[in-house]
Amino acid sequence: MKKLSVWQVVLLLTMISACKSAESQKEWCVPEMFLAPSNFISGNSRDTNFDEPEEGGGPTLFFPAEYLAERVSGYEATVESSGGSTLKQPMHVSISSKAYKATTFEANQAWRLTEGVPLYSSSSKDEFGWDVFVKGTSHDYSFWGQCYDDFEGGFTCMRTFEHAGEYLTYNVDKVNVHSYTGIDELLGEKVAEWRCK
Amino acid sequence: MPANLSISQQARNALAERDLERFWELRMEKRDPVARIGYALWVSSAEKLKRTIEGGDPVYWNHRGYAYWDAMARSTVVNIAVGLERGGFRGSFIETRDKIREIGLKVARWHAIYVNHDYQNNIGRVPGQLSLQQMADYHHQVFREFNIPADFYGGTWLRSVPDPVELSVYGHLYCHDCDTPRGYKGIGQ
Questions:
Q1: Is A146 exposed, middle or buried (0-12, 13-18, 19+ CB in 10 A)?
Q2: What distance in Å separates residue B14's CA from the closest CA in chain A?
């Protein structure tokens, strides 16, 4: 059998890697208006103080506040800040292939996040982030996401849920937390729709 | 061994007290790269910033001196002020200054949330150390909350200039390694 030269091996490896890269580029067909600008940043070549981006997963999606308010029941496109600003409520959604870690839920230390949704935490309120769990119909608790005190009487959350083997994480303000099932449903539909056929 | 980049109780307290200088100073002590511009923006005196940079590790400061980071901070303030105006905000000098501070507090809070999320979930190479992409995401989130056009982050207010040129000329705002859209790998094409 004929031996391959070093250059032929390099060429072969390059072709294999090009195929893999073309494959991954075919995974997502997201309309450009729903892509976060961060998707257009590559590497940290000239400043090694920054971390490398996470490998795997998908692009970061962006949903304008008005788009969400039109499609998700009860979603409010704006909230009022304590500083008197009217803040829009757009959403960045990251897609990861790995599950996020959560602490164990301690039912005897549980406190309710807010009225109207069955979300509870057993984290100390003095901690920077609170692991939040949703109470199921059979009184079981499953990880919902993390919430953070805004030190002004409100909070912001990073909701994480699994969809078709991937983990979607999005930001949501206290005002819109009660709409999370509608948001999950919309995001699940969009992620499925934007997989290249 | 890299420093523990998690959000400390002191940093949480600084956020609660709305003390941006202290928050970024604490993050700087942990060699958080975003803290360089955060501290330069909110430090109470130019002399303090100068001393910090001159006495610091040149690698952490990306081999850039006081003049560079001071210019970055100044141009950031101008950029946000112009971005607010483009987004429809009309206010006096004092009102604009207060609004920029409100944006600064939001950015700091989102930074802490992203760091915490990154730290707890071991994202990337170093837990708690953000990538440029993560940093861009929360800045865009805050800018859009305040109706500042997204291209004001890491970009410029000269909207008539084509994007790749904008990035090469003004892309140094925070994001001196921002690439052009050519770098994007996610979309199917």
A1: buried
A2: 11
Respond yes or no on whether ipTM tops 0.85. Answer: no
Domain contains A99: yes
- Which range of residues forms the domain containing residue A82? 30-37+54-193
* For B174, nearest residue in chain A (alpha carbons): A47
CB-based contacts of B146: which residues, under 8 Å, 6+ apart? A85, A87, A88, B84, B87, B89, B99, B102, B103, B106
In a domain, A115, yes or no: yes
B74-131 pLDDT, tens per residue?
888 888 898 899 899 999 999 999 999 999 999 999 999 999 999 988 888 899 999 8
Q: Count structural domains, chain A.
A: 1
Are B179 and A42 inside 8 Å of each other by CB? yes
Instruction: Let me know the angle formed at the C-alpha of B76 by B74 and B81, rounded to the nearest 5 degrees.
Output: 100
Which residues of B, range 80-139, sit inside 8 Å of A by Cβ? 98-99, 102, 109, 112-113, 116-118, 120-121, 123-126, 129-138
